[in-house]
Amino acid sequence: NMNKLVYISATWCGPCKTFGPTMERVAGTGIPVQKVDADQNQQVLADYQIRSVPAVVKVDSSGKMLDKFIGVRSMQEVVDFFNG
User: Fold this and answer.
1) Known catalytic membership, residue 75
2) Do the beta carbons of residue 9 and residue 38 sit within 8 Å?
3) pLDDT of 28-45, one tens digit each?
4) Among candidates 66, 63, 79, which has minimal Cα distance to 28?
5) CB within 8 A of 79, min separation 6: which ones?
6) Distance between CA atoms of residues 25 and 3, nearest Å
7) What digits encode the pLDDT tens for the residues 47-82?
8) With the C-alpha atoms ordered 41, 53, 16, 13, is the resulting torsion angle positive or negative?
9) Residue 19: closest CA among 39, 40, 5
10) Counting Cβ atoms within 10 Å, is residue 26 exposed (0-12), middle (13-18) or buried (19+)?
11) Catalytic residue check, 77
12) Based on the number of CB atoms within 10 Å of its own CB, is 23 exposed (0-12), middle (13-18) or buried (19 or more)?
């Protein structure tokens, strides 16, 4: 499974500050997490049709979007999302 999670956040986003540590814990379980700053990566927002943050996109090894969610989730929900 070469899938990974692309975690899209922004410095000005309050919920992102809450969700950041959760995503760090997810990464600590061995799930590949790539953190992307929304303001510095407009192309990523366009590619995955992201209109609000925080957003988490599950992509395959070629970067193709498999699934995504917007908003704050629990660590277990994120792990289940990745494994689902």
Assistant:
1) no
2) yes
3) 999 999 999 999 999 999
4) 79
5) 26, 29, 31
6) 17
7) 999 999 999 999 999 999 999 999 999 999 999 999
8) positive
9) 5
10) buried
11) no
12) buried
The reported pTM is 0.95
Name the catalytic one among 13, 27, 45, 65: 13
Q: Is the pLDDT of residue 1 over 90?
A: no
Give the C-alpha separation, 75 to 41, whole Å.
25
Reported as a single tens digit per residue, the pLDDT across 12-26 is 999 999 999 999 999
Provide the pLDDT for residue 41.
94
Q: Residue 22 and residue 1: Cα distance in Å, rounded?
A: 22
Say which of 6, 16, 50, 55 is annotated catalytic: 16
What is the edge-to-edge ordering of all strands in the sheet holding 33-37?
33-37, 4-9, 55-59, 65-70
* C-beta of residue 11 within 8 angstroms of C-beta of residue 40: no
